[in-house]
Amino acid sequence: MEISPVQTERENFTKKMAETNPLSMRMGSWKITVYDQENFQGKRMEFSSSCQNIMECGFDNIRSLKVECGAWIGYEHTSFCGQQFVLEKGEYPRWEAWSGSNAYHVERMMSFRPICGANHKESKLMVFEKENFIGRKWDMCDDYPSLQAMGWFNNEVGSMKVTSGAWVCYQYPGYRGYQYILECDHHGGEYKHWREWGSHAQTFQVQSIRRIQQ
Could you tell me which residue ranges the Beta/gamma crystallin 'Greek key' domain spans (predicted)? Predict the structure, then answer.
């Protein structure tokens, strides 16, 4: 059977897309199960894509969850606003499991979405002393539980560029405090000011950074 030029062109395009962005071609790359009660009890629902408002699914809140595939980001409020929570593969029986130790403690998660650009092995990040990518620069490709202990000169970061993968930055050393998820496919990977880290960000303070596990 002859293959038409149109079919050949379509197959070549599909192959090229798979090579340049494998995640875009994989079905079932993300799966999360959420529950309206702690310890995986009560109403449950599975998702493989973003949820902008869990109340539209008949939930008043998410009180426990299981990440079965892919990395996700949860939000305190609907429409992907408020405090951010990185959700990697595993079980989260109560809100403390995802909220972090020194964050503004809120027992609420109302929206979530996949972190499509997460690539733990190939993650690269540039941090800058001042906003708009000015001042001293540091290239990162590993996890840093304390930036100051590894040579960064203060407890603040002015701006950041994510050239590949996705990262979670923390307000305090030891991966504690507010979480800011930075992705190569958001803002073009460029975060010129702390206001772009998230709607809950209020300061340049960042003291630990790690790659997100996919």
Answer: 30-69, 70-116, 123-164
- List, in order of start, the domains of the chain with CATH numbers: 31-114 (2.60.20.10), 124-211 (2.60.20.10)
> Structure tokens of 77?
């409020």
Give me the DSSP letters along 33-96: EEEEEGGGEEEEEEESS-BS-GGGGT-S---EEEEEES-EEEEEEGGGEEEEEEE-SEEE-STH
Q: Which residues pair with 125 in a beta bridge?
A: 140, 162
Query: What's the whole-model pTM score?
Result: 0.82
Q: How many C-beta atoms surround the C-beta of residue 42 within 10 A? A: 12
Question: In this model, does residue 74 exceed pLDDT 80?
Answer: yes
Q: Is the pLDDT assigned to residue 2 strictly greater than 70?
A: no
